[in-house]
Design brief:
single chain; Glycerol-3-phosphate (1)-acyltransferase; 9% strand
């Protein structure tokens, strides 16, 4: 099978697996994106390693080229995957002398890659670049590198400023980037072109590059959630989810918008009245601790209306009827799935920016090996036909097991709130009142600091 056939297949499989890992990927601002056929540079924050580019492709439903470390291209599996997506190598000086890395010629090799980027753009292509220059989990954007501006201005200059390149800022917001089956939101900002920089670039290329880099920074500041510290950035989305004015059933876009407002208001409150901020944080922590002791994952469960009973019956029927298949899928796939998570955390350590990608790759590898070994065991124990049948059934069984687990979690969420309402209405009312009081205080803070 030729590369022309293998690479499209690889792309579809990998994107499907990434979407399985993050089943809810939404985009805000899609209406302002450039039309198909226009050359585009997507500039993004970079919280989740190689997965960031793939999330962008899924969200936009577009093939987008991107840069990847040169040392990945020489590894058999990662190299094949990133080549399938049309990735281009970037050579890091810190990897000088490593297999696949530069050999004292990083600048020269990178210039060849940048020339390929410029040609791609002149030909109407689309590319994702990360101006911070590295992936990280810090609560704020890092200082911008100038490479993106140099590529963009160079491509326009070579096309006599007729290429029509659009730079589009995109903020990535992961609900929990290392957690399987979590959500991702892409926030697309207002695109801008480079035609107004023609004279400035001709007069002083360095100053023009700096000017475009500053504009990229300002554009990303508008679409990326940032905080003064990691604890605040982690806590605010949870608090915002609990205090959303429109209730529990809001979309990712509305949740992100409300989170941004709460975060901005709390930044102001930290300077104006740090004691009030500390008091709100303490109330939220105490409410969370009380709910955790009661086995309730979020306070909205206590306010679930009775019509949810219509959802309860089919959910209970599904979990009961699918249990035998889910149990078999669980037995076949749980151990390699857990091994992938343990291996990822052990190898990466505290570097959470690569855990998601490693979990995904490890999960694919370990699970496939486990299915092959299990099928061979059944083939030897019974017959080849049963072994082949088990291998073919492994993927649907694993998926049923996944859906069953999510169904049980949803059942637990519905039942615990109803159980407390039935057995201790006074406590349930107190917790509901506390959530409303907390929500009102947060709303007041937001209104006062807008």
């Amino acid at each position: 099978m030729t590369k022309n056939k293998i690479y499209p297949l690889l792309r579809r499989v990998i994107l499907w697996l990434v979407h399985l890992f993050y089943p809810r990927i939404e985009i805000v601002g899609q209406q302002s994106l450039p039309a198909d056929g226009a050359p585009v540079i997507y500039v993004l924050n970079h919280p989740n390693g190689l997965l960031d580019s793939l999330i962008l492709m899924i969200g936009l439903r577009q093939n987008v080229s991107f840069l990847a470390k040169s040392t990945l291209f020489v590894l058999p599996l990662p190299g094949a995957l990133i080549k399938a997506f049309g990735a281009l190598p970037i050579y890091l000086r810190r990897e000088d002398g490593k297999w696949g890395g530069p050999k004292g010629d990083a600048k020269e090799r990178n210039e060849k890659t940048f020339a390929r980027c410029r040609k791609l753009l002149r030909d109407g292509g689309r590319i994702a670049l990360f101006p911070e220059g590295t992936t990280h989990s810090r609560p704020k954007l890092l200082p911008m590198k100038t490479g993106t501006a140099r590529i963009a201005l160079g491509a326009e200059s070579e096309a006599n400023w007729q290429a029509g390149i659009q730079i589009v800022p995109v903020g990535l917001w992961y609900e929990q980037k290392t957690r399987f089956r979590s959500s991702v939101l892409l926030v697309a900002g207002q695109p801008f072109s480079l035609k107004n920089y023609a004279e400035a670039y001709a007069a002083d290329p360095v100053q023009a590059v700096d000017s475009v880099t500053r504009r990229i920074k300002d554009s990303l500041d508008y679409v990326v959630l940032q905080a003064e510290n990691s604890d605040l950035l982690a806590a605010i989305p949870l608090l915002a989810a609990w205090t959303a004015p429109k209730g529990k059933n809001i979309g990712l876009a509305e949740e992100h918008e409300w989170t941004a407002k709460v975060l901005a208001a709390f930044k102001e409150l930290r300077h104006k009245d740090p004691e009030q901020l500390a008091a709100i944080a303490l109330r939220a922590q105490q409410l969370a601790a009380t709910l955790a002791r009661l086995g309730i994952s979020d306070p909205w469960a206590l306010e679930t209306p009775d019509p949810q009973r219509a959802k309860l019956a089919p959910l209970m029927a599904f979990t009961a009827l699918s249990f035998p298949f889910a149990a078999l899928g669980y037995v076949m796939s749980y151990l390699p799935y857990r091994l992938a998570g343990i291996s990822a955390n052990t190898i990466i350590g505290k570097n959470k920016t690569q855990v998601g990608a490693l979990k995904l790759a490890g999960g694919i590898l370990f699970t496939l090996i486990a299915w092959i070994l299990e099928a061979r065991f059944i083939a030897k124990k019974f017959s080849r036909r049963w072994g082949a049948l088990l291998f073919v059934a492994a993927l649907p069984l694993a998926y049923i097991s996944l859906l069953w687990g999510e169904g049980v979690i949803e059942l637990q969420r519905l039942i615990t709130g109803r159980w407390l309402n039935r057995t201790d209405q006074e406590l349930a009312d107190l917790l509901v009142a506390e959530r409303h009081a907390l929500a009102q205080e947060v709303l007041d803070v937001v209104e006062q600091n807008q």
